[in-house]
Amino acid sequence: MLERLLADVSKDVAVLLDGALSGRELSKEDALSLLHVEGPDFHALLRAADVARKDDCGDDVSFVITRNINFTNVCYVGCSFCGFARHRDEAEAFDRSFEEINANARNAISRGATEVCIQGGIDPRKDHHHYHGILTHLKAEFPELHIHAFSPEEMDYISRQSGMPLEEQMRWLIDAGLDTMPGTAAEILDDSVRRVLSPNKLMTGRWKEIVRAAHAEGLRSTATIMYGHIEEPAHVATHLGVLRELQQQTGGFTEFVPLGFIHEKNVLGQWAHSRPGPSGADDLRLIAVARLFLRPWITNIQMSWVKMGPKLSQIALEAGANDFGGTLMEESISRESGSDHGENLPPEEMRRLIREMGRTPVQRTTLYRTVERYDDPEKDPPSLEPERDQEISGPARWRDGTGQARLERNSGDAPERNTNATGC
Length: 424
Ligand code: SF4
What we know:
alpha/beta; 3-stranded parallel beta sheet; globular; binds iron/sulfur cluster; 424 residues; single chain; TIM Barrel; 4-stranded mixed beta sheet
């Protein structure tokens, strides 16, 4: 029977997977072939990526306790996939002061965060000193907190405001407290696609120039892709090739993060004939291809639970991913585009989801140093999340009329079983 399973895998795909597992670097053409696999070839791809993941990273699954802080949603760049940006006169426009940003960071630290991730819209009323001020105010109060901030698009804006050469600008921001840079604003690193998605945004050459300058100054970054809209598999293969080549030159990427397009509430998704985001199979296929194509240069492959949801993210752990990403605590960018997978995945939930897949959760720093390994669930720390009232629905006799549970747990007066079903 096993022979039959293996016989169903096409010969070309078997050769590519065997080569990748033996340490042969896949070409962009190989990646393109693998981005098309279906059926038994698809399952073989996921299995091969899982074996590669185990060889590259072992069975631990890492996560980072972090808080996203979007300091403003005022932005006039006009990306077609964005549901987050607002004009400054709109009622929903916001602009957080330095003190508000610090208050959010304070809250994050009280919940165990080692990192804050700071990004915002491009508001022409702000100049480079504003970005510098965010860093200095944060570091003055929280010298130990890791600041992961300012996408290449923001770096491009800062450089146009400051007039500094890129390397000098990176040094200036590092000296103010910047620790790492998000590798966002990458979308698809192919200008034919970028011109449709965001004609006013930096193009591929400038994205690479900024990332190279950051890495040259010791400012490491993530690497991302946004897929599942108008791009073709060939664009994805090109994008992966750009990232691998950059990594071979600089070694500055900490991880690769595939970000599926959320289509519900933006122009690209509703009017521009894009696909409605990736399918679940697309998500897993890309993670698996990335694992095989990027090794040994980038070995941390993160899935996005915000885009994929926690359950598909669990399956991604068997398709090449080794990192569950960040707890986030607040997430506006995907939510405003229509994502319904929540904004906060507390550490206790991360641990549960990872353990349900038979793997060991490990809290890490931004730079993948171990903070704590959680081998024994009995020794897990108590939750640091703020207490929330638990809403209970269902038969009225179990509620007190305000939506709150009427009974103490284990009071002996509880229902014998909770079928979690309707019509029972
Ligand atoms: S994606 Fe970023 S740069 Fe583009 S419109 Fe939205 S906030 Fe502005």
